[in-house]
């Protein structure tokens, strides 16, 4: 009778990685032979985070099993101080880790607490740093390392962090993540009072930089390191977006390890103040010549200058750039980005850029030929001040036909994902309604007869993106908690009550002046988008009906879904036919349950 062990070893090796931890636990109970085979996989990855992770090892049996199988551990993650010491006690010594994550900030035994002013106090024993250093020395083959402030905070030893950095393994380390505190004790000569300005801090940093450069350059380089993540704690004085000065009780001296990272290609940063960002930009520009990918997860800046410096902190040009919602990103930052990366940029995400002017983004669309993805805010991230990337179609078309500027887009077949709000399209077929009454929308100065001409011009720009898979022109959903706190009864972002309340507050959650997406308006110009899978027209005044769906079924064979068809066409000037129009659309969708495109019905 055939058994699992009768399979060729190559097949067994392919199967085992696809099993879950629960599968491994079940398999080791089958027999001694199965236990021998699956035990290494069961203990390969150990995660002891929060209380539910610790529960597995609370019993004597669990502790004994973990100690007995410690030599199988390759990936270890913990938020508990006692399990840090587990890694350096007992026999055999753990020496084959490939991934290590130690985050002690939130653990109650890590002695990191907050006083009445919200300032974090540190009381981590020096032995914690010593333990982490021992682990690092015992595991020179580490490929991924993530440490938070609980691993290197001191009250009496300012050299602890430097010693820790020195112990980082250099041979195979590919990814390094450091999560700092906003109140780390700094080197004595770089301590500054909170009243010292940014310029003075940077000057002190440069002084310390010159002093310590020989020390760092004399150490072994991280030749395999490709990705670095650096996150500071909230430096905006209480978590408010747009904090100006930050907390100067620490300095960017902790970033000097980047001098040993000549092959870093990707960096992720978050929560940095003006001074730290300025110094980081200078370091990246000089120390990381291969850097071309940046992800910025959270911004507390209200100054554009450090953003401009960061846009220029690449030698090769940015290939991927993901930026958070920030009020300070304006035309200067965009110009710096284009100056360094117009020939290299493939991925750009800007969650919100309140200072970008009308049609500034067209400078990117008309020059970044290699762009593959243009992304804005995601669903659930939009708040009341979010400014989505947008184009004033009327103004752009007027410049185009007037010969003032060639606003033609250069985006072509390489584009896969395109997210942009098309605005200010004259729409004589639209009546904006509020509470059953017509709502005045600022379009009276627009030439209504240009509606189809402008839409066809936009369609022509979109038609060049023949490789497009997702076309996102609709409004994104608000953060689920932003408006519910005002009225808990608002449970649907598509409710007319919510839409009208937002309009009263000056927040237009609906775009009445956008693309019609009807055949009459020029939809047939998009016939070449054969790869399109998702079309998002949520909360825009589209006129997608059965004719358009039939056309899409034939010409967009891969189209899986259209977000926004559930709208009830309250914007229609043909008052009275909305229910019938929507009923026919619903009937068509019911007849095509697997998708819109014809490929789903072969």
TrEMBL record:
It comes from the Eukaryota. Residues 1-46 form the F-box domain. SUPFAM superfamilies: F-box domain. Pfam families: F-box-like (PF12937). Coiled coil: none annotated. This is F-box domain-containing protein. It comes from Linnemannia elongata AG-77.
């Amino acid at each position: 009778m055939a058994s699992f062990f009768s399979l060729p070893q190559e097949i067994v090796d392919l199967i085992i990685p696809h099993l879950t931890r629960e599968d491994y636990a079940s398999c080791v109970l089958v027999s001694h032979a199965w236990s021998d085979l699956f035990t290494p996989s069961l203990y390969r990855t150990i995660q002891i985070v929060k209380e539910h992770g610790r529960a597995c090892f609370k019993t004597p049996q669990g502790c004994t099993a973990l100690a007995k199988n410690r030599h199988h551990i390759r990936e270890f993650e913990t938020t508990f101080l006692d399990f840090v010491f587990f890694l350096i006690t007992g026999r055999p010594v753990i020496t084959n880790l490939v991934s290590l994550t130690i985050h002690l900030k939130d653990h109650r035994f890590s002695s990191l607490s907050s006083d009445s002013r919200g300032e974090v106090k540190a009381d981590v024993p020096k032995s914690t740093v010593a333990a982490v250093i021992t682990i690092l020395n015992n595991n020179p083959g580490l490929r991924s390392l993530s440490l938070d402030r609980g691993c290197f905070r001191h009250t009496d030893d300012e050299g602890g962090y430097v010693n820790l950095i020195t112990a980082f393994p250099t041979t195979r380390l590919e990814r390094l993540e450091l999560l700092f505190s906003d109140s780390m004790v700094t080197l004595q000569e770089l301590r500054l009072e909170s009243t010292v300005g940014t310029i003075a801090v940077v000057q002190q940093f440069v002084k310390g930089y010159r002093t310590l450069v020989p020390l760092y350059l004399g150490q072994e380089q991280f030749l395999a390191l490709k990705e670095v993540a650096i996150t500071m704690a909230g430096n905006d004085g209480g978590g408010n977006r747009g904090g100006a000065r930050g907390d100067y009780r620490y300095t960017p001296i902790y970033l000097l390890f980047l001098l040993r990272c000549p092959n870093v290609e990707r960096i992720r940063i978050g929560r940095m103040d003006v001074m730290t960002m300025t110094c980081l930009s200078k370091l990246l520009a000089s120390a990381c010549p291969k850097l071309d990918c940046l992800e910025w997860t959270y911004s507390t800046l209200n100054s554009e200058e450090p953003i401009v410096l960061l846009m220029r902190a690449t030698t090769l040009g940015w290939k991927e750039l993901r930026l958070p919602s920030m009020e300070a990103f304006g035309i200067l930052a965009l110009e710096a980005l284009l100056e360094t990366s117009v020939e290299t940029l493939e991925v750009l995400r800007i969650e919100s850029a309140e200072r970008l002017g009308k049609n500034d983004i067209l400078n990117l669309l008309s020059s970044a030929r290699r762009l593959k993805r243009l992304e804005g805010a995601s669903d659930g991230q939009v708040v009341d001040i979010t400014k989505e990337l947008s184009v004033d179609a009327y103004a752009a078309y007027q410049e185009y036909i007037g010969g003032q500027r060639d606003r033609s887009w250069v985006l072509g077949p390489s584009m896969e994902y395109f997210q942009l709000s098309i605005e200010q399209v004259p729409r004589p077929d639209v009546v904006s309604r509020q509470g059953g009454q017509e709502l005045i929308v600022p379009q009276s100065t627009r030439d209504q007869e240009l509606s189809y001409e402008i839409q066809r011009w936009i369609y022509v720009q979109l038609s060049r993106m023949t490789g497009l898979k997702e076309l996102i022109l609709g409004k994104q959903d608000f953060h689920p908690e932003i408006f519910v706190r005002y009225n808990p009864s608002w449970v649907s972002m598509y409710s007319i009550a919510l839409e009208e309340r937002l309009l009263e507050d000056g927040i237009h959650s609906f775009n009445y002046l956008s693309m019609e997406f009807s055949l009459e308006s020029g939809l047939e110009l998009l016939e070449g988008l054969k790869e399109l899978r998702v079309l998002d027209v949520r909360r825009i005044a589209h006129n997608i009906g059965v004719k358009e769906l039939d056309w899409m079924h034939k010409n967009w064979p891969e189209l899986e879904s259209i977000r926004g068809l559930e709208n009830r066409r309250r914007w229609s000037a043909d008052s009275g036919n909305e229910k019938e129009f929507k009923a026919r659309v619903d009937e068509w969708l019911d007849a095509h349950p697997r998708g819109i495109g014809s490929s789903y019905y072969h």
